[in-house]
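[agent] plan:
  1. take the single chain provided in the ticket
  2. run structure prediction with default settings
  3. attach structure tokens to the ticket
  4. add a short note for the reviewer (M.T.)
[agent] executing step 1
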Amino acid sequence: MRNSVHGEYVKGDLIYADPEERHPYLCSRKAMYSTRGLESLVTEAAQLGFTLTTAKDRNGNDRPFIVLNNVFAVEALSKFDASYKDFKHACAMFSNGYMASRFDFKDYDEYKKVITSGKPRLFRVKVARHKSASFEPSSCQGNSTTHKTLRKRFNFIQENGSFAQIEEDHWETSYPLNMCADTPRITAVMSEKGYRDMPAIARLPIICTF
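[agent] step 2 finished; step 3 output follows
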């Protein structure tokens, strides 16, 4: 049991101990993945046909990110109101799994490493425009000059359902556009360069982390 503090146990290892034996312990934070554990996850994911990439999270720790190529659509409760409730269990197959967002990465380079790891380059993220912003898409002509104002209308939906402000540098340059779409761009997706606004009807894969 003493060796466990080094984080060298991976799933499948057997640890024999006397059930009556007592040991002191001290926990200061959640256990982190060991290098050997992450290497094992990458190998197993590849054998199952999944793309799993390790990247540094916002705390600077190595974390697994896995692409689910199943496509998901956001439920449009109304023309200007999007719901992500069907995404709640999308990553439930992984222990403590949830949908990844730009916020999960240490920096842009770590984010780009995961986004460009496979063929899909657009992924769903739990970002929605506030339903009070009830305006239609603009025409396809010209360029959008209101993206900085539009950004304030979008929120990131956290795991507990609360809303969080999206950092400016998480958006792709000149987005949101709110242009050239059959239905209002009330959601957002992750691209290689950041967030883009997108109609709810667009069906796209997701990235899970755990």
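[agent] step 4 note for reviewer: Helices lie at 35-47, 108-115, 147-151.
[agent] ticket updated
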